[in-house]
Amino acid sequence: MIVFKKEQDLRTYLSQQRALGKRIGFVPTMGALHAGHRSLIDRSVQPETVTVCSIFVNPTQFNDKSDYDKYPATPDADLKLLLEARCDVAFMPDAAEMYPQGFAEVRTYDFGYLDSILEGAHRPGHFRGVGQIVSRLLEMVQPDILFMGQKDYQQCMVVKKLLGMMGREQQIQLVICDTVREEDGLAMSSRNVRLTEPQRALAASIYQCLVSIQGKQNSDHFSLVRKECLDLLKKKGLDAEYVSLADATDLTLLEDYEPSKKMVALIAASIGGVRLIDNLFLNP
Ligand code: PAF
Question: Whose CA is nearest to atom 3 of ligand 1?
Fold first, then answer.
């Protein structure tokens, strides 16, 4: 595996690989890698593919400074995981490399409706920052395939829209990979390491709620199930930001179950000051 810190070195290497007929698979991350990231790398690694994993904790997507300050950094363990996974390239730039002219100089994208709901509504500016960094990374890496995790489903939709806005939807295939879960259902997240053992166990109630929203789609009204979920989360000591139902194709929020649509349930809740998100498709 080769570790690059500079954009120019990465670009030179990747253009050589492209000239040799290799495809580029790309997994953008903020490090603190876990089994969820590993599953994305595993999807990409193939004989004729050069897999690039970027590790950069992007300051512009954190609306909460203390979340940024506390974001876990485990570079040695990350490199070990990437080596074991046979990743070809780790790209680990610093902020000066990613934002050489300062944060304000990188083009921003307006995601409209997608930025006005759920994560967009609760984390003002978050998707603007995601758009800034992902567009920068895509210009550098120019991947054929981009792998992202379903846990951040709204982010996946934002990136899909970004690919269109960049005019790259034909060249770059976005592959959304299943969420990897702990045994009790808790979605793998870099933020989980900040939970104490009791908090970690209680956090599994987010997944329990998603499963109950899924299980009751043919018997109850969503408003009732939602109330039960909010009560359960509260009882478990979680501070819920939203328990929502949406059309999975465009994230239009739904008041009630609509079986003719592909539906996704989404939850954001905090415990011990750690903010967690998760989602589940309700029907095929
Ligand atoms: O999902 C993440 O880890 C980040 O939002 C991403 C896509 C790497 C952009 O910083």
Answer: 29
**CATH number for 234:** 3.30.1300.10
- CA of residue 31 to ligand 1 center, whole Å: 9
If asked whether residues 55 and 138 sit together in one domain, one would say yes
Nearest CA to ligand 1 atom 8: 29
Q: pTM of the predicted model, to two decimals?
A: 0.97
Residue 30's identity, in one-letter code, is M
Q: What is the band of 88 on the pLDDT scale with cuts at 50, 70, 90?
A: very high
Give yes or no for residue 106 having a pLDDT over 90: no
pLDDT digits (tens, 9 = 90+) for 35-69: 999 999 999 999 999 999 999 999 999 999 999 99
Q: Are residues 31 and 159 in the same domain?
A: yes
Predicted pLDDT of residue 209: 98
Task: Please tell me whether residues 23 and 124 are part of one structural domain.
Answer: yes
| Mutation pick for ligand 1 pocket among 30, 37, 275 (CB with most ligand atoms within 8 Å) | 30
Ligand 1 pocket test, candidate residues 57, 58, 146, 277, most atoms within 8 A of CB:
58
Domain ranges, residue 224: 190-277
Question: How many domains is the chain built from?
Answer: 2
| Domain boundary pick from 130, 153, 177 | 177
